């Protein structure tokens, strides 16, 4: 058996997230169905993580096993003809037999977009703000994330993870254009709902509802009830998943 990483992107609006769900269509389900059709055998995929309902991915990575060597470009092209228009495969990469899309990932980057303008054509990919917050204060608060490891305050309650420890290596707001800003956050791993909870709490800072030191206290209290409301899903993108070169053949 040969193992491959498959790199893909998707618009999450029509899906109940990445992971297979009993009560709704998922991206994983669509990809597994297309791969199984193409390879003429039941083929499961394991993703680098799981995005929530409505969240998008500019880059998701998953691994699967195939009998024998594949022509990556040919498989990617045929998969794109089988998949719906809101899921696209960029490429396949042959990896070591023990390589794992989730456990071998060394970093993941998410981006969250907000805008102060009413945008009819990009509204499904932006969070609309009716007043511009103080992005300077929000960046001062965001920098505190790099000082901590335990992010229980930003985790969805009652999840099945064994630890709430993450190492954040980047967290900042930057201007995209005159009315649009993006929050970029990079870490070795993320908790369920973490990015949206962080964004919601940072917006409280930007609106003057919470001070920078108050944001620090939210982190230190390790209590989800102390953090702000989660920001809407449609403005969040999984942007990149990183791996050590050793996993590739």
Structure commentary:
- With 249 residues, this protein is of the alpha+beta class.
- 22% of the residues lie in helices and 26% in strands.
- The protein has five helices and nine strands.
- Strands 1, 2, 3, 4, 5, 6, 7, 8 and 9 form a nine-stranded mixed sheet that branches.
- A hairpin with a 4-residue loop joins β7 (168-175) and β8 (180-187).
- It is globular.
- The mean pLDDT is 96.
List keywords for this structure.
single chain; 249 residues; alpha+beta; 9-stranded mixed β-sheet; 5 helices; 22% helix; globular
Portion in helices:
10-25%
Spans of 5+ residues with little confidence (pLDDT < 50)?
Answer: none
What does the main sheet amount to? 9 strands, mixed
Q: Termini, distance in Å?
A: 14 Å
Strand content: 25-35%
| Quaternary structure | single chain
Count of helical stretches: 5
Order of helices and strands: EHEEHEEEHEEHHE
Rough outline = globular
Average pLDDT over all residues: 96
Count of β-strands: 9
Short description:
22% of the residues lie in helices and 26% in strands. The chain has helices at 27-39, 72-82, 135-143, 194-206, 212-221, and strands spanning 2-10, 46-47, 56-66, 87-95, 107-115, 127-128, 168-175, 180-187, 236-242. Strand 7 (168-175) and strand 8 (180-187) form a beta hairpin.
């Amino acid at each position: 058996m040969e193992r491959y990483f498959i790199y893909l992107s998707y618009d999450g609006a029509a899906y109940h997230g990445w992971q297979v769900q009993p009560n709704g269509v998922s991206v994983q389900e669509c990809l597994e169905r297309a791969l199984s059709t193409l390879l003429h055998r039941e083929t499961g995929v394991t993703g680098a993580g799981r995005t929530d309902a409505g969240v998008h991915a500019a880059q998701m990575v998953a691994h699967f096993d195939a009998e024998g060597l594949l022509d990556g470009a040919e498989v990617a092209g045929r998969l794109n003809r089988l998949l719906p228009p809101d899921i696209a495969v960029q490429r396949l990469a042959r990896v070591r037999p023990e390589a794992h899309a989730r456990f071998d990932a060394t970093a993941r980057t998410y981006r969250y977009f907000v805008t102060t303008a009413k945008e009819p054509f990009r509204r499904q990919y932006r969070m609309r703000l009716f007043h511009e917050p103080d992005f300077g204060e929000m960046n001062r608060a965001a920098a505190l994330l790099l000082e901590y490891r335990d992010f229980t305050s930003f985790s969805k309650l009652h999840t099945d993870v064994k630890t709430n420890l993450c190492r954040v290596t980047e967290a900042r707001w930057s201007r995209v254009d005159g009315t649009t800003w993006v929050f970029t956050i990079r870490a070795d791993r993320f908790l369920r709902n973490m990015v949206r909870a962080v964004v919601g709490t940072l917006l409280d800072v930007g609106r003057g509802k919470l001070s920078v030191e108050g944001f620090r206290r939210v982190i230190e209290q390790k209590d989800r009830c102390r953090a702000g409301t989660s920001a809407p899903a449609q403005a969040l993108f999984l942007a990149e998943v990183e791996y050590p070169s050793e996993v590739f053949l």
